[in-house]
Amino acid sequence: MKTKLDTDYIVRINMEEVDPETASVSIFDHGFLFGDSIYEVVRTINGKLYAWKEHLERLRRSCKRVGLELPWSDDDLENEVQRALESKFWEGESYIRLIITRGVGHIDLMPKTCEEPNLIVIAKELPKLRAELHETGLVLCVTDVRRNSRDAMDPGIKSGNYLNNVLALIEAREKGADDSVMLNANDHLTECTTSNVFLVEDGIVKTPSLECGILPGITRMKVIEIARNNRIAVEETELTLDDLESADEIFITGSIKGVVPVKQIIGQADWEGARGPVTERLRELFYKSAGI
Fold first, then answer.
1. Considering the entire predicted model, what is its pTM?
2. What is the DSSP letter of 35?
3. What Cα–Cα distance (Å) separates residue 268 from each residue in 130, 140, 144, 200?
4. What is the mean pLDDT of residues 248-260?
5. All domains of the chain, ordered by start, with CATH?
6. Measured between alpha carbons, how far is residue 107 from residues 27, 110, 184 in Å?
């Protein structure tokens, strides 16, 4: 039975707009066969791409890390995203997913038979987080699923290989949480399934360092810069479950979510709280700087 899309999309594949209901890539694309792809998610603010330069730089870094050579210039990629936005039929802000797959090749892990990558742009109206979650906060579950090791599938590469995160989110939802927080092999906090995590203790903002095995989130980077520019102490460090349970405030960040407070931690850790003054201050400063 065909699944009906629950929202309306604009889809472009290799520089051409296609019908979202029939949009497809070959089953021999290594992105489909092996998860051999990279991507970025960008949003608009007042109709303009937010932090596009930073997202593009991270995209290029991901490509380099997986040995994927792109035939498109930075201008080519931006123009494709802009073409998708020019076709939008919604009034609100936009969500854009830019995907680059290894391309079609033999059923062989070695990508030498993949002659050219595929470029896919998907745009839709920006989803809105429920207003009460911004007010009261999210429930997070410390999951049993461990974050991928940096020595295996480095989380610093924004790839389409997301099964680890899928399993963590399934566990969270089964336990009644909105999202999961994952630990690494050394029992240090890493990140949520699609967000970075922060905690506040004695007025100091703390977040897992990149060395813990996390994606260098764009919003994470912006919040750290904003905090330091406003004399709010920030530490990028190793954090444990004890740090999580002793936190005064906890919040998450993401390109689509923004800055969202946490009200409860369940699973391997037990914590309850509310949106605190440091979280609120950083939220205000971030949204002001972003023009939201």
1. 0.94
2. -
3. 26, 11, 8, 19
4. 96
5. 9-125 (3.30.470.10), 131-290 (3.20.10.10)
6. 10, 9, 32
* Cα angle: 72, vertex 160, 73; to 5 degrees: 10
- Residue 246, SS3? coil
What residues contact 78, with CB distance under 8 A and at least 6 apart? Answer: 49, 52, 56
Grouping H, G, I as helix, E, B as strand and the rest as coil, residue 261 is strand
Closest residue by Cα to residue 23 from 118, 107, 105, 116: 118
pLDDT of 121 > 60? The answer is yes
Please say whether the dihedral angle defined by the alpha carbons of residues 157, 161, 167 and 170, taken in this order, is positive or negative: positive
Residue identified by tokens 């730089």 is 57
Neighbour count for residue 146 (Cβ, 10 Å): 16
Judged on CB neighbours under 10 Å (0-12, 13-18, 19+), 277 is exposed
**Angle at Cα 211 formed by Cα 32 and Cα 142, nearest 5°?**
70
Structure confidence by residue, pLDDT tens digits, 150-196: 998 899 999 999 999 999 999 999 999 999 999 999 999 999 999 99
- Amino acid letter, residue 215: L
